[in-house]
Amino acid sequence: MTSSDIDGWETLSSRATVTEDPEPPRRKNRTARWIAVVVIFASVIALAIGGLFLAESVTRGIATDAIAVAVESSLPSAVDADVDVDIAGEWVLFQIFSGSLEKVTLTSDDAMVDGSPADFTLVATDVPLDLKQPVGDIDATVSLGPGSINELLTLPGNDAEVALGDGTVSYADEASILGFTLGYLVEATLSPNGTDVFATPVAASVTTDVGSLDVSGLIERILGAQPVRICVADRLPVGVTITSIDVTPERATLNLRASDFTLNGESLRARGTCPDPA
Asked: Could you read off the pLDDT of 97-107 as tens digits, one per residue?
């Protein structure tokens, strides 16, 4: 190899050394740092979101339990029920911060009213956390068996027992005609009006054996009479009204409504008044 060849090789080597780019290692280090920052930031966000969901779950559980305990302890003495609570809405935590809950549903399918089975569903909207403040609106459905409906409705007659039928109730009564005391059975439909229930006779039959005695006048008098007004205000919390009644042979279902009602023990136990019988 000549000296000129050696000099040429050294020149090429020198140029190669000079033209090497020192930037790539620094770029790699910078990229690695950015990746680490992004991963850490994403991890923090994930932990924050996870913590928020955990806080929401815990808050929802505490709130539902607290409402159930408060309602069960405020029920009237004649009512015994295990209450299930459902709070509507995605974020109970934020609702609590606002001071009220959008919608709360209370249900019980094993309640006892005056010793008789019953079940109910109550939907309340705009429920304040301060139980001394009124709820926006309340709609409730209560299903009562024969025993409970007899406690609620006191129909005229010599027999306090009210029998449930297909859309009607029946009760026994008696009347005096020509010196004879005649027993009869009345079937009536029920229609509510606020805290009153009206029983309108739709059928009647004489239960006493009268032989050939014509009792058609008695039947006409029964069916032509004005509906019987039954006040139930003294068996309902003040401010609660009945909007409809559906009767089957097994039970009577009442739809109730209230506005500006407070869900505390005092309001749930307070009863209205009925006028003295004439």
From this structure: 778 888 889 99
